[in-house]
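Ticket closed. Logging final result for Citrate transport protein.
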Amino acid sequence: MDRSAIASLVSPYRRRPWMKEQGAAAAASGQVGLKGIVAGGITGGIEICITYPTEYVKTQLQLDEKGAGKKYNGIFDCVKKTVGERGFFGLYRGLSVLVYGSIPKSAARFGAFEFLKSKAVDSRGQLSNSGKLLCGLGAGVCEAIVAVTPMETIKVKFINDQRSANPKFKGFAHGVGQIIKAEGISGIYKGLTPTILKQGSNQAIRFFVLESLKDLYKGDDHTKPVPKLVVGAFGAIAGAASVFGNTPLDVVKTRMQGLEASKYKNTAHCALEILKNEGPAAFYKGTVPRLGRVCLDVAITFMIYDSFMDLFNKVWV
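Final structure:
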């Protein structure tokens, strides 16, 4: 019996080569996922400090109902009245909620995407179109459950509280304590279903568009670097696509998380009530400010994230 035959009997990796391959793959995917978590967390904190005022205006307009309760006549009226009543920093009301939430949200999103991508790429390191959609969907569902639902619920309740004549929330800790005291832990998980639908479709659209545009830019050279400004432009396009694709879900989610959410039995009932009382156009309330925020948000996010991942890939081996 020759040496190669003996080695094939003695070495467990000769007999079960997938053990060695899977071990290496697991280590690599775990490392990439961890880099994504750290880079995503840093990115989320920086991005929200830049874009929050547009999120504030969007939420105010989505909460604004027709009739006697209507408070604002549009984007500029909302900004003017907010600054007039509370000063410029009134546009940052509720920022602390998103700062606390944006870091784990972005970390969960990018960590999940990088992990799933490492499992789904082909032998050339490329994702198929279905792979792009599914990895993005998985990233969106992960962030919805881990961070977005409680963060968004608290944010909407804080902004909604400001609209009342006598705001009752004195700060982040006090507000969260009051919500949990009145409604229990489930009080910060209102609108979980529409949030999962929104975030899942959001990230599926965004990552699909971004990754597809990157592939188009690279052509046949998969190692060709994409300049950060080009990444930003691709991110803005991806953000716009997601806005037009799922703003109705965003409106329903916002209503389900407001202080008057108790009047809705479930997600479907909320959607039907909006359609019956306010018409189809109500599902696109706040589209313009959301479009501005999301395009800027996604462009900045992907530029910052790519920059940190490039850095980590050089120094974090």
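The radius of gyration is 23 Å. No further action required.
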